[in-house]
Design a protein that fits this description.
Layout lengths: L1 H24 L1 E5 L2 E6 L6 E2 L1 H4 L1 E8 L9 H17 L6 E5 L4 E6 L8 H9 L4 E5 L9 E4 H4 E9 L2 E2 L5 E2 L2 E8 L1 H14 L4 E6 L2 E7 L8 E4 L6 H13 L6 E2 L9 E4 L5 H26 L1 H22 L9 E2 L1 H30 L4 H34 L5 H6 L12 H33 L18
Parallel strand pairs: 3-18
Antiparallel strand pairs: 1-2, 4-6, 4-16, 4-17, 5-6, 7-8, 7-13, 9-12, 10-11, 12-15, 13-14
Helix pairs in contact: 1-9, 1-13, 3-7, 8-9, 9-10, 9-13, 10-11, 10-13, 11-13
Length: about 475
């Protein structure tokens, strides 16, 4: 049993250090100018406008008589743009409406390594009108079966493995967009597939582009439809799902200026990379000093606490960088950094509370094993109360100021019925990093620390009470 506990400590400590290395430095291969990313690191984080700068674009309604565009149309277009930016995890954005000139000013940072500015802007300005059409012809009033903004409740990007269905048909699998329909849409879709099976087809169009054309082999009940495309990538599926979830613009938006040029400018950062490097250096020095103090005061529990804090910081960086290549990087801004610092501070507080409880139990005459168990047990309620309160606040911030179709928004929607939907990126960014920091605090400061400290206490030459805060020569 002691040998197993010791092994748990070494395995977990090595796993935390390995995770921290990958979180900060990532894993990638370079082939000439090409870089294949296997695991995203800190360099892949999308930095906000305040740190890295970004793009400023002036959008104008296109292919429509400007005299017919109302204030309500412009406000609706602004809301859709905000939600599209948030859905793409670009939380640091600014969207302003000039009602007099019927223009929308948008400022947003570029993702790490992104250079195709025009492509990013074009994606924002697409109307994103989704239609299900009988056959393969362009949508008309006669052949439209469903409308995305009326019948689709949610779209999600998924990867489906190759499989064979009940009828023996082989499906190659790949990245798809799964659409959940409301009750009316489910009924219309089932009726259409029942009418068209087994020789008809249904095509799905996004604006004027066909994104899927599938043969209808049998009726499809259940209110779920799938958009697939040969050779589809995860980026394609996620982008399409984001556009559908954010809703359709009342008109297409263009960045063509009246003089024939492009109304796009590059924004300089308000803080800059030099200030960021200074901040990171200060954080590193502060962390080293903190670890020295905790080790001097709490001995072995202090060492374990430092390892746990490294794991907590690595987990927060992984949640911001995307870590997995198929997940977009989260935009890190100054408020987001504040959320990280606050959550790390709560991690320090949790470890200090536990270390003090262990010290008190040792002074009360308990054995090392008993003191560790009792210390974690008595500190649990204080740590839980403080952290769960912050989690609730974080979820409310993300739900109130994030995308309305997000999980946090659905959780707090019963509380927000009297407020209008808004998407304020810097508040959402603060709530996001704070939430992940507190979750990692639970994982590292409570569970991982307990396993590691129990494992260390089984090592014979370290079974000395004074190394855990007790009286020297006591067991």
């Amino acid at each position: 049993m002691k040998r197993a506990s010791r092994a748990q400590f070494f395995i977990l400590a090595v796993a935390i250090f390995a995770f921290a290395y990958l979180s900060f430095f990532g894993a990638s291969n370079h082939f000439g100018m090409r870089r294949d990313v296997f695991i995203k690191g800190a360099n892949d984080i999308t930095l906000g406008i305040d740190i890295r700068g970004g793009v400023e674009a002036v959008f104008t309604p296109a292919e429509v008589d400007l005299s017919t565009v109302t204030r309500e149309d412009m406000d609706a277009a602004r809301a859709v743009l905000e939600h599209r930016l948030m859905a793409a995890r670009i939380t640091d954005n600014e969207v302003f409406v000039d009602h007099d000139n019927r223009q929308i000013l948008v400022r947003f940072p570029l993702a790490a390594g992104e250079h195709d500015v025009l492509h990013a802007i074009d994606n924002l300005g697409e109307t994103a009108i989704l239609t299900f059409v009988e056959g393969s012809n362009r949508p008309t009033q006669e052949n439209v079966i469903l409308l995305g903004h009326e019948h689709v409740t949610r779209a999600s990007a998924q990867f489906r493995a190759p499989h064979t269905d009940a009828q023996g048909r082989h499906h190659p699998g790949g990245h798809v967009v799964v659409l959940n329909l409301n009750s009316q849409g489910a009924g219309l879709f089932e009726a259409a597939t029942r009418r068209l099976a087994p020789n008809g087809s249904i095509s799905i169009w996004m604006d004027d582009e066909m994104v899927s054309d599938a043969r209808v082999n049998e009726p499809i009940p259940g209110g779920e439809a799938t958009i697939s495309s040969p050779g589809a990538t995860q980026e394609w599926a996620q982008q399409l799902a984001n556009q559908i979830n954010s809703g359709a613009l009342p008109f297409r938006l263009s960045v063509d200026s009246p003089d024939g040029g492009m109304a796009v400018n590059i924004i300089d950062p308000t803080m800059g990379s030099a200030a960021l490097n200074t901040m990171l250096l200060a954080a590193l020095i502060g962390f080293i000093l903190l670890c020295i103090i905790m080790i001097l005061i709490y001995k072995i529990p202090g060492i374990i606490a430092c390892i746990a804090l490294i794991g907590q910081a690595a987990g927060i960086i992984a949640s911001v960088s995307g870590f997995v290549p198929t997940i977009d990087s989260f935009t890190l801004t100054i408020p987001g950094i504040a959320g990280i610092i606050l959550s790390i501070g709560m991690g320090v507080d949790a470890n200090v509370i536990t270390s003090e409880r262990i010290r008190e139990e040792l002074k009360a005459g308990r054995t090392i094993d008993g003191a560790i168990d009792a210390g974690f047990k008595s500190s649990w309620s204080a740590i839980f109360d403080g952290n769960i309160t912050v989690i609730i606040v974080s979820v409310i911030l993300m739900g109130a100021f994030g995308p309305p179709d997000g999980m946090a928004a659905s959780i707090v929607s019963p509380l927000m019925f009297m407020f209008s939907s808004t998407a304020t990126g810097f508040i959402y960014s603060f709530g996001y990093t704070l939430l992940w920091g507190v979750i990692m605090n639970f994982i590292m400061a409570v569970f991982a620390s307990r396993i590691m400290l129990r494992g260390v206490s089984k090592i014979k030459f370290l079974r000395k009470a004074h190394l855990y805060g007790g009286v020297k020569n006591a067991e």
